[in-house]
Specification:
This protein has 21 helices and no strands. By secondary structure, the protein is mainly alpha-helical. Helix 4 runs antiparallel to helix 6.
Length: about 500
């Protein structure tokens, strides 16, 4: 039985959302933040357990497949999942055409992934990578089948449902991985963790969204609106593909030159360096793109949303990165154990890259929400060669040299990338850096204060207690600096007022 278009359009229309956009945006952001402690517990808990049950080489094997997974992800859906969220007008028939055409693209992409499995195994000289890649393709397929449903949930700003799905899939993957590792399955525990998370997400998104595609009709011509969406998606896909080549080249070089063990150390250091940033950026990305896209036709409203949306990113991730840089040894020793201490210098270098590069990463919000993916693609043609050169130079000194090359390259590119993005957006450089300078300044000064506190405060035999004391010292310095810096009291009052209005469910 064909779906009723009038019913399906209920899952597409954004008229009701636009009339109450401010409150919905803030509540969606609050949902994302409230869910983070749960996600944090799963993420840290699984890593703590798995890092002790498995070896760096086990993590390295999965990291060898990660570049292929990243490239496949950049090609999947042809960027149309974001176009579905971003477009102001969309109807059931158009959504159906997008679904069926994307499915064709995704079948080709997954076929490419399957064909690359033995090639990857021969490149690294690890025959087990063939089976790993084929199993991971199952998870990718489940996400591809449900991408439109997830996009429509985002379009409707149903982030409570999406958050529940994320937590459920994260929990399912974590339990599966720990059980498999405990049973002695080695690297398969990490593979099953990824696949289980993706399968649960795919099934849950399909069930949670009542939209169903219309029956497939061959030879459908694309109208001007759909052609615009495909152009948007094509440039976004091009940007993703090109930038991910440079983002994944570090792992390819280390895996090929230094082997799975060193790659495992680097990969975990990389993931932990990005961990604080991703805990804020990823859950807010969908909220930001949905909110910014709905406000793109009102310049002043767009600027206001951007300033509000960017501030939490820098206010939370920058101090966390500064703290982890100073306390790197204690954190890695507590969470991962002694076998991972060799990753400390890698982690500290990459933490610097994330601290500075976080300003570059958030430009994606602006490009995507304003429909400027063509300009984003042009920047990728500048960014990628620079990063490739930096990494190629660094590999002469092994994993540490690659980390240094990655950090230097990203730091050099950050300001030009922001200026290039802002040039044609409703924002000004002043708008952007007004959200950056206070958390950056307070974080750096607090980190210096924390470092010198080691000469004053006693050391503790209990790592947990020591980290607790250090975090309190750092937090107090950071908060005092935040309030003391110009405009600090006003920004604090604004944040508290917003939270109060959200709690009281007032329409703001």
């Amino acid at each position: 039985m064909a779906p009723d278009p009038s019913t399906s359009n209920q899952h597409i229309s954004t008229d009701a959302i636009s009339s109450d956009l401010k409150r919905r945006s803030l509540q969606s952001g609050l949902i994302a933040f409230v869910a983070q402690p749960v996600k944090l517990a799963f993420g840290i808990g699984s890593t703590v357990v798995l890092a002790r049950l498995l070896t760096p080489a086990d993590f390295g094997l999965l990291a060898m497949v990660a570049p292929l997974l990243s490239l496949v992800d950049s090609l999947a859906n042809f960027g149309l999942e974001t176009a579905t969220v971003q477009r102001e007008k969309l109807d059931h028939q158009q959504a159906s055409v997008i679904f069926w055409l994307s499915l064709k693209i995704n079948i080709l992409v997954i076929g490419f992934m399957v064909l690359m499995a033995p090639v990857l195994a021969r490149f690294y000289g690890k025959m087990e990578l063939t089976a790993i890649t084929l199993v991971l393709a199952v998870g990718v397929l489940s996400l591809c089948l449900s991408f439109q449903h997830k996009s429509l949930l985002k379009r409707q700003m149903r982030f409570g449902v999406l958050t529940a799905i994320d937590i459920g899939s994260l929990g399912g993957g974590t339990v599966t991985a720990i059980a498999a590792a405990w049973s002695g399955w080695g690297y398969w525990a990490l593979v099953l963790q990824v696949v289980m998370m993706q399968v649960i997400q795919g099934i849950a998104c399909w069930l949670a969204c009542g939209w169903r595609p219309a029956r497939y009709v061959s030879g459908v011509k694309l109208d001007a609106h759909l052609q615009g969406m495909f152009s948007y998606g094509a440039h976004l896909t091009g940007f993703r593909f090109i930038t991910r080549i440079s983002m994944q080249l570090d792992r390819i070089l280390i895996g090929y030159v230094s082997g799975a063990g060193m790659l495992g150390l680097y990969d975990l250091a990389y993931r932990w360096a990005y961990f604080p940033f991703n805990q804020v950026y990823l859950p807010l990305f969908d909220v930001a793109v949905s909110s910014f896209s709905r406000a793109q036709n009102d310049k002043d409203l767009y600027r206001s949303y951007c300033r509000r949306g960017l501030m939490p990113i820098f206010a939370l991730c920058m101090p966390a990165l500064a703290f982890l840089f100073v306390q790197a040894r204690e954190v890695i020793l507590l969470l991962l154990g002694k076998q991972w201490l060799e990753a400390i210098p890698l982690f500290q270098l990459l933490a610097i890259a994330v601290f500075v590069g976080s300003m570059y990463r958030v430009t994606k919000w602006i490009y995507v929400s304003t429909g400027q993916t063509q300009r984003q693609f042009r920047w990728a043609l500048i960014h990628t060669p620079v990063m490739i050169i930096a990494l190629a130079i660094g590999i002469k000194w092994g994993a540490y040299g690659v980390a240094m090359g990655y950090t230097v390259g990203l730091c050099l590119l950050t300001y030009p990338s922001v200026a290039f993005c802002i040039q044609t957006s409703p924002l000004s450089l002043g708008d952007f850096f007004s959200a950056v300078w206070r958390p950056a300044t307070a974080s750096l000064i607090a980190a210096v204060g924390l470092f010198y506190s080691h000469f004053v405060l006693p050391s503790f035999s209990n790592l947990i207690f020591e980290l607790l004391v250090r975090s309190i010292v750092f937090g107090v310095i950071y908060l005092l600096l935040w309030v003391a810096l110009p405009g600090g009291r006003q920004s604090t009052a604004e944040i508290l007022a917003i939270l109060q209005k959200i709690r009281s469910k007032q329409n703001i």
